[in-house]
Amino acid sequence: MRRRRPLKISALVVCLAFGALACGGVKPTVSVSGDPRAESALANIADTLAADRDGRFSTLLACVELTRVAAAITGPGPVTLFAPTNAAFAKAGLSCSKDSKLTEAQSVALLRMLALHVTDADVRFSPPEGFDAKLPPRGLELVTTKAVTVESTLADAAGTALVVTPDKMVSTIDSPSKKAKILQADIQAPNGMIQVIDTVLVAPSKPSFPPQTVPKKPFE
After folding, report:
1. Mean pLDDT score across all residues of the chain
2. Which domains does the chain have, with CATH numbers?
3. Backbone phi, psi, residue 54, to 5°
4. Among 79, 118, 139, 125, CA closest to 201
């Protein structure tokens, strides 16, 4: 039985403190995402996270299930999720429970924070198997000797982008000093990539937007 815990307000973001969700799942079949030539698979990024042997993403999965970000990481892709571990959420003073009821303000804050961690491209540090530079998978962003900037699905007045560096760090373009370390790179899920990070990225300090202004792609 999951136990509901009371809401807390974090100094980091107006967001959430609920109990963690225990997640299970089967090991997914893997194919190259974003490539029309690749065979379709049943599993997705959420299934891949749930199948983690050490259960490192139970808090992330619980938070995702409370928002429409779930549609982004279970859709056809290509998509990359910069996935904070349970320890990263604990360090930020944040947690979620699937059973919790959120106010509208809390739901917007959570959506705003999670959407920052998603981009509609395959962000990789090494090319996929059988990579052909003349016929690359759509939406592929390779990080090699130079930093790569990709748009996150968090859209507000000024837009938001993520900067991924060859030394496996990621930050928002407007907060370059606040970096998350990529602990494990290039985990291939059937519909996209997972980059495991040690820190929850913080959305820019701007007025919260209504949830309906989140871009349709890749939420549809």
Report:
1. 75
2. 45-204 (2.30.180.10)
3. -95, 5
4. 118
41 in Cβ contact with 29 (< 8 Å): yes
Query: Does residue 109 sit in helix, strand or coil?
Result: helix
Please choose, from the candidates 183, 180, 184, the residue with its C-alpha nearest in 3D space to the C-alpha of residue 152: 180
Structure confidence at residue 12 (pLDDT): 33
More confident site: 31 or 152: 152
Please state whether beta strands 122-124 and 140-142 pair in parallel, antiparallel, or not at all (unpaired).
parallel
Rounded Cα distance between 123 and 150, Å, is: 8
Q: Tens digit of pLDDT for each residue in 122-161? A: 999 998 888 887 776 778 899 999 999 998 887 665 568 8
Rounded Cα distance, 84 and 74, in Å:
17
Question: How far, in Å, CA of 195 to CA of 117, rounded?
Answer: 10
Half-sphere exposure of 175 (CA within 13 A, CB side): 13
Evaluate whether 141 touches 124 at the Cβ level (below 8 Å). Answer: yes
Give the number of residues written for the chain.
Answer: 220
Choose among 146, 160, 147: nearest CA to 118.
160
Number of H helices, E strands in the chain: 5, 9
Give me the mean pLDDT over the 161-181 stretch.
92
Angstrom distance (rounded) from CA 128 to CA 32:
7
One DSSP character per residue, 29-62 reads P---TT-TTSPP-S--HHHHHHT-TT-TTHHHHH
